[in-house]
Write a structure and sequence with these properties.
single chain; 191 residues; mainly alpha; two-stranded antiparallel ribbon; 2 strands; 65% helix; globular
């Protein structure tokens, strides 16, 4: 799915680091952070596996069917969760993009080696536009985020204010989403 091997490894590292932080966010005290973190961790690790350079691992066709099933189920779950929180629509689009790439890989195994030819140019272009817009929107939203603290019952020293932990930082969650959006663009460009 990639050209140069070094770029593939950088993409694997970015996606794995993002997935790891999302696992940490699942321990957050804030319910909205926990709700989204599981799906984002799945996306991060799934993208890391899919981004492995073809010289290291060329999965058999049945593995792409496994990707299709896992991310198809994730897309349905995100669509169901979007009834309560519209942000999950983005998760659904991301999972559908993973399904699309997995189907393209199963149909054209040469696409994984970076030779292109997989997928529909129109659908690939539409997904590229969506994720480019999402990356720009996420980047703009990241700029004005102030450092904040959370109010916790029974805080120390009677003030009621406790500094947020690593799992509760909204700006770090935005950085993860931005990173995964950029990684998705990179993966779609090589399809």
């Amino acid at each position: 799915m990639h050209g140069p091997v070094q770029a593939g490894w950088l993409l694997v590292a970015l996606c794995a680091a993002t997935g790891s932080y999302c696992l940490l966010r699942m321990r957050s005290r804030l319910e909205e952070q926990r709700r989204a973190a599981g799906g984002e961790a799945l996306m991060g690790f799934g993208m890391a596996l899919m981004a492995l350079p073809a010289v290291v691992l060329t999965p058999p066709r049945w593995a792409w069917l496994g990707y299709t099933a896992v991310f198809g189920a994730a897309a349905c779950r995100a669509l169901w969760a979007a009834r309560r929180d519209p942000h999950h629509l983005h998760h659904s689009v991301g999972a559908c993009a993973m399904v699309y790439m997995a189907v393209a890989m199963a149909a054209t195994p040469a696409a994984h080696a970076g030779h292109g030819g997989g997928g529909s140019p129109a659908l690939t272009g539409a997904l590229l536009l969506y994720f480019a817009g999402y990356v720009l929107w996420s980047g703009v939203r990241l700029l004005p985020v102030p450092t904040s603290t959370a109010v916790v019952e029974g805080g120390r020293g009677g003030s009621g204010m406790v500094a947020m932990g690593w799992a509760d930082r909204p700006e770090l969650a935005m950085v993860c989403r931005l990173s995964m959006g950029i990684a998705m663009i990179a993966m779609l460009l090589t399809l």
